[in-house]
Structures are given as C-alpha cells and as structure tokens.
Amino acid sequence: MLKDITLGQYFPGKSFLHRIDPRTKVISALLYIAAVFLCQSIMSFIILLAVTLAMIAVSGVPVKIIVKGLKPLIFILAFTTIYNVFFYTGDTILFHWKFITIYLEGVVFAVIMGLRIICLLAGSSVLLTYTTSPIMLTDGIERLLSPLNKIKAPVHEFAMMMSIALRFIPTLVEETDKIMSAQKARGADFSSGGLIKRAKALIPVLIPLFISAFRRASDLAVAMECRCYRGGSGRTRMTKTHFGARDAVLFALTIILGVSIVIVNIYLPIWVI
Amino acid sequence: MSVPFIKVEDLIFTYDDEDNIDKHYVLKNLSLEIEKGSFVCVLGHNGSGKSTFAKLLNMILTPDSGKIYIDGFDITDPEITENELFEIRRKIGMVFQNPDNQLVATIVEEDVAFGPENLGVEPSEIRRRVDSALETVGMSAYATHAPHRLSGGQKQRVAIAGIIAMEPECIIFDESTAMLDPQGRKEVMNTISKLNREQGITVIHITHNMDEAVKADRVVVINEGEVFLDGTPKEVFSNVAKLRQAGLDVPQVTELFYDLSIHGVDLPSDILCEEEGAEILSAMLKK
Q1: What is the DSSP string of B116-157?
Q2: Do B96 and A229 lie within an 8 Å CB cutoff?
Q3: Model confidence over A116-131: pLDDT tens digits?
Q4: Across the interface, do B114 and A133 touch by the CB < 8 Å criterion?
Q5: In this predicted complex, what is the ipTM?
Q6: The domain that contains B57 carries what CATH number?
Q7: Residues 174-213 of chain A whose Cβ lies under 8 A from any Cβ of chain B
Q8: What is this structure's pTM?
C-alpha cells in the first residue's frame, strides 16, 4: 500500500534534458514557474502548453508516468475547477437554473486554472525531478548555493542531508509497512474510531520506527566513515557537470518562453484573465 | 620473513558496564597475524568480540591498549594524522551486515562512486573504477537502478563494489551474509572468493555460518575476547568438543562423524565436505 508512493521519481535516460547541468535546470525550472504565473491570455496558455508538451516529448519520460505523478493533485484540481465554474461571474450567461448561474468566462477561467496547475507540476517535474537523479539535483543545489560558504553556511552538509533523506524515504516507508503489519498481527487496529483514536493507534508504529531510524543512522555513519567520508573539502565528483552549449540553449529557450508570454499578453489580449 | 600484512599485539578493549563499576572486557590480550592475500574466517558466538575486533582494524574504535600494525605501520600511534587514518581506511575496506544501512545514494553507480569521490579521485578515474567494480560484482546491468528495488544479495554486492572502487588491499566482511537469503548468501560468497582469488585482496570474513568458514584458508575462533582456535578449517573443525564449549556448531557432516566416532565407529575427524563424507560412509557400509 505505502509502496505505491513515488518519491524521488527519477526516470533514467539520455535525452537532451537529462544531459543538462542540474544548475541550469534548477534556474530554468524557476523561470518556467514564473512564466506559468505570467500567463494571462488564452494565446499565452497555448504557447505554454505547446512548450510543456514539447519538453515532455524531448525528455522521453512516458506520458503514463507523468499522468500518474499528477494523481495526488486530483483533489485540488477538481476543487479549483468546480469552484471557478460555479462562482466566477462574467457577462455571457451559459446556463441558468434557480440560483445556479454559469458564465462562459467562468468555464474558460476554470479550464485555464486547471491547465496552469497541470503545467506547473508536469513542466517543473519534467525539467527537474524526472530527468535529474536526486544526487545530481542536490549536487546542483549545493553548487548554486556555494557562494553561501563564504558566510560559513554549511552548504555541503545541507546537500548531503537532503540526499540521504531522499535515499532513506523508500527504506523507511517499507519499514513502516512492516511494523504496521506486525502490529496488526498483534491485534492493533488502525482503521476504526475517531481521529484521536487513530492517531493514538499510530504511536506503537512510530516508536519502533524512530528507534530503527536512529540505529540506521548510526550504522550509516560508521559505513560512511569506513568509506573515508570527511565532509565536503577535498571531495571530487564522478560526473563533472559544466555549462555547455546545451545549457545555453535551454536557458535561452526559457527566456524566450517568458518574453513571448509577456509579449502575447500585451499584444494579443484575447480572453484575458 | 616479510612483515605480516596485519599484526595485532595484546589488544585490549573494554567498555564500562552500565550498572557495574567493573570494566567489561570485550577483547583481552588478543594477538593475531594475518598474511597478505589470505582468506581468513573469524568465528565466534554473539558477544565474543569478533565485530569489535573488525572495527579496531580500521580505527573506527580505538583499543584501550595493545598495538595494531597494518603493513608494518602502527595505527594505534596517538600521533597518527588524519590523512594517515584515511589511508588506512582506504586500504582496509569494510562491508557490514545490513546492506540498506550502507548505501548512501539513490542510484547504484552514484553509490559506488561515493568512496572514490571522498578520496578526491579524478572524475574520469572514478568512472573507470565504478564500471570495473560493478563488473567485478556482476552488477553492471543495474548501474542506473535504484538500490531499494534490488534484492538483499544484489544490494550487498553493490556495497562490496562501493568498497572495491576505493581499491583496498583488504576487505573485512562483518557478518555481511547474515541477513541474506540462501540465494543472496551464495552470490555474496562467490563474489568474496572471486575477489580473494582473482584480485589478491586479503579477506577477513566474520560469520556464524560454518559452511562459509569451510571455504576459507584459515579459521580463527574468538571466544571471550581471545583467540581460541586458529588453523586451517580441517584443523579447527576437528576440535568438535572445544568448539561446542565455545558455543559454536561445526558443519553437520563433521558433527555426524564426531558423534559416530564417540560411539566407537572408526572414522576420520576432519571431514568437512558432504560429498567426501558420503563417499567414506558408503564405502564403509559396503564392507
């Protein structure tokens, strides 16, 4: 049951997006997110949608996986869409019955909001999590933040903690599953009673989980010491990433995306929201 | 005679008992020499001090007294520099019991690269070492997989690859087969003997499993913090009574032969291999 959660959903491959420096991808993803929020007219949304679909096609990540990744959003998506359909007021009445009035603008707005959320998640995850292994990602973040070393911020330690946390999520999820089964076999009941009763029922799961997590942490620390880990200084990386032509291309493309969306917003203001 | 690769002299390691003021002796006057390129199995029941002994060899723990020489270099010297310490840890790799708790990265090849990265090896050289280490343990096909999707034996082989990539001279396996299923155990044992035979890596294998100990060149039994028995598997396992006294089993065949000879059947006491035992018994029954 818990195993179905996809975390650190890296999809190995050798596409254009896979081979880009993680630093470029982090910056591009931020620009892309900004672009998503800049979209105001239907034309700019068409551009955004085209770019997002193109990115998915280039990445080689199966659409099925991306759709699966959107599943946790279904509730938010449904809520925003329905809310906007019923409560957005406009000029063109599409449907009227007693106290329910649906306006054309409301439907358009709802669709656009839905698309915005989908693009936001699908686009940024294709740019980052699907095409960048967690280690590369934390490595990229570490290097982007490295100027902070000057003010003695523990950037390397922070990145290491992040990648170890990512590494241990599936292990701990599996362990939680095991402990829950073991407690169920001893007659524990996790699925009945009110909120407080259920929360209390989780205590016998959390305590062994914490103890085991600490044991794992101390084992891992010894294993890391045995593998000569001594912090960030003097450490090299197997995959030396550096900015190349590809990075310039991606960077230019995201800038073009942002600029064209702003231009379209100004000069082709059709169905502006 | 040349200097032994590992030389341990009068090693003492204690910890303070929680409710007792007395010191609890884990190791008392342990002395041992291990030759380069040998395959040594360390046996002992729980709490005999065998894991502590392993952790002392690369200075994860520090002994109370006694000397440890690696390649003639005294690692118990309090003046040891950090660089010398890390050089020792590079030379003497260690693989632990739980494969999950040794893997650092979310991708197999990135995990194998962790050791050499810490050593500051050149990126192209790391790539070469990672590929060759994965090749050695037979995990090349899984280079870009996530470790949590692998079986126990496969994870443990990845952990071994992570150590090989540091190009050690000796690898200590601290009950590395204890948590595995029979299939995984077999995979790991094959990898261990391959490393010893083909790459000349000194292997110190700590185990509970007698059938694994039979494969070693030399078996050292540690009991109550001291070397209790030391010799070839045949020599050690022929002391059935002594091993039982130390709370250890012997391979089943050896045990059967021992019990038969107690009851007056004339049989050799140094049979370790089931086929060998079966042949002797059937020859005897035919008479």
Answers
A1: HHHHT--HHHHHHHHHHHHHHTT-GGGTTS-GGGS-HHHHHH
A2: no
A3: 888 888 888 888 888 8
A4: no
A5: 0.85
A6: 3.40.50.300
A7: 174
A8: 0.80
